[in-house]
Amino acid sequence: MLVDVQSTLEEVAARVRPLVGQGRPAGYIPALAEVPVDRFGMAVAEVDGRVHGVGDCATPFSVQSLSKVFTLALAGDVADRVGREPSPLAFDSLAQLEQDRGVPRNPFLNAGALVTTDRLLTRTGDAAGALCRFLAEETAAPVGVDARVAASERSTGHRNVALAHLIAGYGKLDNPVDDVLDHYIRGCAIALSCADLARAALFLARGGVGATGPVLPAADAKRLNATMLVCGMYDGAGEFAYRVGLPAKSGVGGGILAVVPNRCVVCVWSPGLDRCGNSVAGVAALEAFTVLTGWSVF
Ligand SMILES: NC(=O)CC[C@H](N)C(=O)O
């Protein structure tokens, strides 16, 4: 089937319009709660580099947990400190971490991302800086941290502080807890548009090859996609696989990154979240996109 990506995006935007504004923005980070819920943007970056977009696709938003994909890609092997099984509990669950005795069940839970941030910090000396540099290279645009969002999360992120201390209590952080938290929070507070995020994640659709060369060996890119498929949408991963059928990662800023291997990366943004922290209109848009294009891994 020949797909006109631009007109498909316009059709998707029209179909999900009634859902935009449903759900709630992430209230536990006050700066995110202020973002208007009526925003909707979607972009597709094809493996040949062409980018298409609709709505607010060029508006920067807070990437939040989308950063965890890039942190994991840059951190190297973390298998000794973090698992790769889905979690039935929420992304910030302390009970899950305690049950798993300080070895987070997967790298996309907050606990897992704290561990990958710790590893990236050891590897580079500046985890948040390494993320920004990587994203700037892949998008050929300047990339920065939204200091207001970072300060906001720093003042209310008690659960992440508790998670980090619990991991450290199990002897499984190499850097000081406060440094790991600081780099994690700044990585989450990076602001990027759908178009730039789709571009930056293209290595996942291209067997590990990024804008300027290999980011990961192909086997590792395959594993990262598999981890996204199983764990990227948290306790909504099963429902998302059923409705959409793509490796994906959500963030509480309302973004979702989804990979169609060997074809494209899709990024959608709309701030209203469901009970798992996934964008309501974003999930619906990806479902409509896969139905209209027939593009899925299944
Ligand atoms: N799911 C998310 O996007 C969570 C990221 C957020 N910064 C947090 O730590 O709670």
From TrEMBL:
Keywords from the UniProt entry: Acetylation, Hydrolase
One term of GO molecular function: glutaminase activity
Signal sequence, renumbered to the chain: none
Enzyme Commission no: 3.5.1.2
Binding site for substrate: 65, 110, 153, 160, 184, 234, 252
Catalyses which reaction(s): L-glutamine + H2O = L-glutamate + NH4(+)
Keyword Mitochondrion in record: no
Listed NCBIfam families: Gln_ase, PRK00971.1-2
HAMAP family for the chain: Glutaminase
Subunit structure of this chain's protein: Homotetramer.
Family: Belongs to the glutaminase family.
Designated name of the protein: Glutaminase
Biological source species: Actinokineospora guangxiensis
Protein encoded by which gene: glsA
